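In response to the reviewer comment on reproducibility (Comment 2.3), we provide here a single inverse folding case reported in full, input and output, so that an independent group could reproduce the run without further information from us. The structure tokens appear first.
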């Protein structure tokens, strides 16, 4: 009986959670895969069984605040319970990335997991050339999203349609905001950029555009989201070994300190954004 009571207590604690917290997404799985793994770990710890056939009735309501590519890693903001209603603010808010690009090769996905579609020389590109070009991509700019993305066509993700070999229409260029853009390292053919941007911005498109602008081609070799909203990778993102109910409780409590102007996570309200849940 004592063990049963303890299990009920843990389950009630989990199902009573409401708020935002951040986790570390590793390379490989999709953001949805990572979220499902987190949910499974928490439910198993609470002794709650998942009924996969009854999807309409969620045992634990969870969502994330903006997709990270499967090849990318870093901060993924998670909403639990009523906290899922706060996630729209994460989509439109400021984000920071560190990316490693590679000149000389372009791919169909604009990153390292795609097929090489073009090769060009890059010996003529200097660090000064790169830094001068970055100025053109700072501020409010027009950017065309990559075909491999979470944007949708007829209700289906472009990336899924591309993988099926179906015809896909490129989305029109749209206005995005780049607050800061700088070169951290330049070791041809590789270059490392630090980026601070708003919602809807694609790092892969930026790197692809830089290659063309510099009379070459380029793709993303590595991408890390280091900050999303007030959540930073090294201070707030829970590593996988800390995906426990007690650690999540602590993380949600810490959220109050991250958004004091809004009166804490439980009172945080944001307008629902119509923006697609895609970023990188």
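Designed residues, in position order:
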């Amino acid at each position: 009986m004592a063990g049963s009571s303890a299990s009920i207590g843990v389950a009630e604690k989990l199902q009573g959670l409401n708020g935002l917290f951040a986790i570390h997404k590793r390379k490989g799985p999709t953001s949805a895969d990572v979220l499902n793994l987190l949910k499974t770990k928490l439910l198993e710890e609470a002794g709650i069984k998942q009924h996969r056939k009854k999807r309409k009735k969620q045992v634990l309501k969870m969502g994330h605040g903006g997709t990270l590519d499967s090849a990318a890693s870093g901060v993924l903001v998670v909403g639990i319970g009523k906290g899922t209603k706060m996630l729209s603010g994460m989509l439109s808010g400021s984000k920071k990335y560190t990316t490693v690009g590679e000149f000389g090769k372009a791919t169909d996905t604009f990153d390292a997991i795609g097929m090489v579609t073009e090769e060009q020389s890059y010996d003529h590109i200097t660090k000064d050339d790169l830094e001068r070009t970055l100025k053109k991509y700072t501020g409010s700019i027009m950017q065309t999203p990559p075909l491999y993305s979470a944007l949708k066509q007829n209700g289906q993700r472009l990336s899924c349609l591309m993988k099926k070999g179906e015809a896909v229409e490129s989305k029109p260029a749209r206005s995005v905001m780049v607050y800061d853009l700088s070169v951290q390292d330049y070791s041809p053919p590789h270059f490392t950029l630090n980026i601070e941007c708003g919602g809807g911005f694609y790092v892969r498109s930026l790197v692809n555009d830089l290659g063309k602008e510099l009379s070459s081609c380029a793709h993303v070799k590595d991408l890390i989201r280091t900050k999303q909203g007030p959540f930073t990778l090294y201070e707030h993102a829970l590593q996988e070994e800390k995906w426990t109910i007690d650690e999540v409780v602590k993380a949600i409590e810490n959220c109050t300190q991250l958004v004091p102007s809004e009166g804490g996570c439980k009172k945080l309200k944001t307008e629902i954004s119509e923006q697609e849940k895609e970023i990188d």
